[in-house]
Amino acid sequence: MLSADPKSLILWCLAAFICGSIPFGLVLVKLAGKGDVRAHGSGNIGATNVVRVGGKALGIVTLLLDILKGFLPVFLAKKLGVGSDLLALMALAAVLGHAFTPWLKFQGGKGVATALGVLLAVDVQLMIVPMGIFLFALWLTRYVSLGSILAAAMVPVQLLRGAWAFSWGATMSRNMGPILPWLALAILVIWKHRENIKRLQDGTESKLWGAKKEPANG
To answer: What is the pTM of this model?
Structure first.
């Protein structure tokens, strides 16, 4: 395991933040000659809004690249022996980069795809329950935003359950260390959906298919 000294911590997290900050949705839509994705739909740079502006193919490419930019730095760090505490901080840094990209005056997306990427990099099993919750909520309600919110909430819940079941006392407190960044990540994703939550409460949120109302998650 690599030593998580302050210099290493800062460099790894900075690398994850920069990688996560690349606004692929904005770049791809502009390259396709569709203008600024932020000027249309929900105004978001995520894959859902890219679909609205540039079509399904462009949206799929954006989704894959947003997943990759979260996956790549964390996966490389894991392969080099970085411990779980630092991997959790890197995961949070990558999603923060997407949500507050410095290239767009610290305005960005909601971080769902990038969060999926970091989960895949750390442990594929971590995404099974959140993905199942997302798909079930989407099937039941057709709201991408609701599925994303519930999926994000499940990440720290399942990690906390695992830590609690694993051990007690001092060992338990050590197991809690990596959970805190994941909790912050989940809160960030949910907070970035605050407008969607309001529209869900008002009954004006758009569904993935069916009649459209107001611009929704992206």
So the answer is: 0.85
